[in-house]
Amino acid sequence: MSETVNITAEQYDIIADIQQQTLAKLASDKPALDILNALCLLAESVLSNAVASIMLTDSNTGLLNVLCAPSIPREGHEALTNLKPGPCGGSCGNAVFHNKAQFVQNTFEDDRWLNLRQIAFDFNLCSCWSMPIRDENKHAVGSFALSSFEHRKPTAFHQKVLEICSAIVSIVLKRQQKEERIDLLSIAIDSASEGVVITDSNNLIVEVNPAFERIYGFSEEDVLGQNPRILASGLQEPAFYQQLWYALNTQGKWRGEITNKRRNGDYVTQWMSITVIKDEQGEVQNYLSIFSDLTELKTTQQQIIDMAFYDAVTGLRNKTFLEQQVAEGDDDYILIVLNINNFNYLNTAYGFNIGDQVLKVIGNMLSENFASGDVFRLNSDEFGLLFSRDIDIAKQIKSIQHYFYNTLIEVDDISLHIAFTYGAVQGKKNLLRNCALALKQAKSLGKNRYHIFDVDTELLDNINREHFIASNHLLHTALEKDQFVPFFQGIYHNKNNKIARFEVLARIDNTSEIFSPYHFLDAARLSGLLPEITRVMIDKSFKVMAENNFSFSLNITEDDLSQNYLIDYLEKKTKHFNINPNRISLEILEGVSATGKKNHIKQLSHLKSLGYALAIDDFGTEYSNFERILDLDIDYLKIDAKYIKNIDVSEKSYEITKAITFFARNANIPCIAEFVHNQSVQQVVNDLGIDYSQGYYFSEPAPLPVI
Q1: In sequence order, what DSSP letters do the residues of 515-546 get, joined into one string?
Q2: How far apart are CA 630 and CA 616, in angstroms?
Q3: pLDDT (tens digit, 9 = 90+) per residue, 581-630?
């Protein structure tokens, strides 16, 4: 059995995606180094904790050097300079030396790494898999490698990825060599190293070189005295030759691409440069034609285009082609995606060969019976129908359902009924993404169902989903890279007229932007990471506050209390940083105090007994349990910002705040007004006798506490 048996359909999709992305860049004439760097990054994406590299042999010295390795530091490039191929020259040196793939699982012990052992230790290269890069004569001229920071051996999937990447590198290098050759010819038109034809003033052939004979199959005797039109293919229009002769007569030269015909009738595509040679009197004496055979390059380019934009199994245009088509212009399209029900089971039961034949039949059926839409194969078990005109989507889907319900697919004496689940969308942008969302919704309804994406009603949900994904990524990256930092906002004492204490606020600093909790709080709550953030804030704020005597407050969540770690953790950190608990207030949400679990209340009471002050944050947002607040012996009430920010213009906010203030004064609990942002609001706060004010009017959050 071949190794491909162990490769899943999803992994084949990944391999196909690597081919399509790389070859699409190649077909669009991206610089070779950019293409190869992108290929390395794609290879790295299929193997975690690994780096990819491409090495080539120097034609003069025979030594290997790094061509590109975007994830390997410069020191690594230098360490691998002038690597000698050989049985002890590492995975790449052996791959080139033996012209055979090398899969080294343990570089620290394998004899193939004997000469490079120190490099393996220095850069922690635990394993290295290398595939030779071969030229058109099948000689090894370099290597494509995946080096891992773990001891591991490749799966059949990873071996296939290495094989495909090595083949693509060969194609890229071959194209680069061909293009450099053509560029050289275009600026060296008087060189006779390629095919040369010289005609006289009457345009009759008087000289050809051996390359001409090789390219056309005509001998010198066959063509001397003949007009070059004997080589004409008939594919060029008369206007083409009129323009050619106009350029020769007015400019004395012409360059361009032309298709002629060989002696055996085959077409040959050439890049030709024709120069008029004149005598001393300025009369035309000869015409010198120098040409390069582009047939192989054209064939290679077409192969690249076919691989990049066409599906190899069905011959249909692929996902890359579809993406480019819908991205161009501002046209309104309808896209229907058809996902084959239970296709994996078909592959398992009958094998991939039968599965491929079924895909071909389905592709032909869609093309022949639903030709009003362009047909694409998108993934292993998905087809797409694209319409550039308005259609009844539901009616079209039902037509497809009816056709396949009544049509039997026959392959190698096997008869099958095929059904699909459908996702559809109409619009100008994000067609594939929205269609994928529609297909997901259809699958949730069951087999053979369809769902049409409604941009107006479903786009908002998708935007929210994307916002959460972005927030979750921001959160995890910040924790991984230690980007959480404390900011400090002053709390103003309205009787003493000065900043009396500070609140510690969590921020993410990724060097380019500062992110507030709005960007990560919901994701942290859903991910259960709030206690992790709290611990970071305790560590970093304590370190800052150890340098001064300011009092400060920390936000504590219900998740922190549920994990039951606060008492021990705070005790450990106050001792480490020599901070008196009397300087610290713990701000808890109103809901924790009002409806908190028995164990939470017990922890808060214990913390209170150790000297920590307790503050109720955002008071007034819920139905408050005033009795519980009194039982906890709360030290501060922070009145919710939604009542303070417009208290100067809202009678409702004023009355609610007045009632809270009255209760707090009778209970001898100081109040803090949040979101004091201007003089008008501060005046009302003072009139109500509120003890403290917090907001941008007095203090903006900053990396250090500033009075």
Answers
A1: E-GGGTHHHHHHHT-HHHHHHHHHHHHHHHHT
A2: 11
A3: 999 999 987 555 544 567 788 899 999 999 999 998 877 665 455 666 77
Q: Hey, what amino acid is at 384?
A: G
How far the first Cα of the chain sits from its last, in Å, is: 76
Radius of gyration of the chain (CA): 37
Looking at the chain, the domain(s) classified CATH 3.20.20.450 span: 470-694
Tell me the CA distances in angstroms from 23 to 133, 138, 167, one per residue in order. Answer: 17, 21, 11
In this prediction, residues 83-104 reach a mean pLDDT of 94
8 A C-beta contact, residue 129 and residue 103? yes
Phi-psi region of 168 (alpha: psi -120 to 50; beta: other; left: phi over 0): alpha
| CATH 3.30.450.40 residue ranges for the chain | 3-173
Residue 371, classed as helix, strand or coil, is coil
| Dihedral sign from CA coordinates of 64, 66, 68, 72 | positive
Interior CA angle at 595 toward 591 and 596, to 5°? 90
- The answer to whether 423 touches 339, Cβ cutoff 8 Å, is yes
- Going by C-alpha positions, the residue among 37, 13, 277, 284 that lies closest to residue 161 is 13
DSSP 218: -
The CATH label, of 3.90.850.10, 3.30.70.3040, 3.20.20.450, 3.40.640.10, for the domain at 470-694 is 3.20.20.450
Phi first, then psi, for residue 642 (nearest 5°) are -65, -20
